[in-house]
Amino acid sequence: MDEFELIRQYFTRASTDTDVRVGIGDDGAVLRPAVGRDLVTVVDTLVEGVHFPANLGASDIAWRAVAVNLSDVAAMGGRPRWMTLALTLKNTDRRWLGEFSDGLFAAANEHNVSLVGGDTTRGQQVVISIQITADVEPDRALTRSGASAGDLIYVSGTPGDAAAGLELLQSNALTTDDARSLADRFCRPSARVRLAQAIAPLASAAIDVSDGLYADAQKLLQASGVGGQLEVNALPLSAALQATFDTARAREFALGGGDDYELCFTLPAENESRLNNIASQQNVSLTRIGNVTAGDDFVCTESGERFEYRDSGYRHFNEAEKSET
Ligand code: ADP
Ligand code: MG
Hints:
Blueprint (H helix, E strand, L loop, with lengths): L2 H9 L8 E3 L7 E2 L6 E10 L10 H18 L3 E11 L4 H16 L4 E9 L4 E10 L15 E5 L4 H10 L6 H11 L5 H7 L5 E5 L3 H12 L2 E5 L7 H6 L2 H10 L5 E6 L4 H11 L3 E8 L4 E5 L2 E3 L9 H6 L3
Bound molecules: adenosine-5'-diphosphate (ADP) and magnesium ion.
């Protein structure tokens, strides 16, 4: 199977998007943006052995590669539209490719994203780079830099599950339903695209949680030039996480574990009641975990008392590698 047959067989699928004027097959894709909207572009690369274990199923690898990009789009409050895929493969295993393309299109179709082009190469390890183009109302993109002292800090979902799931996967410890559901959160993260678009008008700043809640909240606060306080008793720990690990460990996963692709955001207190409506409409849990403060200290508390948290305390495979890049 040569490169052209591979692209045709696995990556060329009919799209109903009439704004794709020229798709896969020419030297470049021609896309028609919606009049008057700002464009948002993101790209993220996953390297075998660094960002995912080499034995992860091909459809999960592809799903993750799309989801991590959708999560960046979400964090900007964007509506994802088109993607390109630069794929480096060790060989052309048909079964692997079939599963990979199924996972890829499953993740993309969920958000009406069309694959409009890419590049295919051979190399020593699998490398997947996906770029997504999204759009947003003019001047309405959510950024990291808009938080002010007095704002509330929120997180969606139950952070920590994916990192716990990866650890269980890697230690072959998927022996309970809870453990399997945690692993599933690593394999199939769901980017908060719809949620982010709904909260964008209420939020002052946002970031997606890819490196860990503490580290990513800190990036948001730094970008905004403010400090913060995070209450560890408020962390929304999932039932599966609490059933599988003790509280100290569960908190470490929630604060330091990456790969959740949940949304951490800030908002002025007066917007809180409107936020609660969105949470119930979308059936997503949104939890207030702290406050934005003046200055530049970012502290954790436990029932209001200072709680010492060292972000270097826990590193799983995925993060230890990531922090080197
Ligand atoms: P060129 O050599 O002109 O860059 P390629 O042979 O790399 O063209 O690609 C041919 C067409 O297939 C282009 O439209 C390109 O965007 C698309 N393509 C290549 N690889 C992929 C892929 N992995 N996924 C989607 N489209 C791809
Ligand atoms: Mg060309």
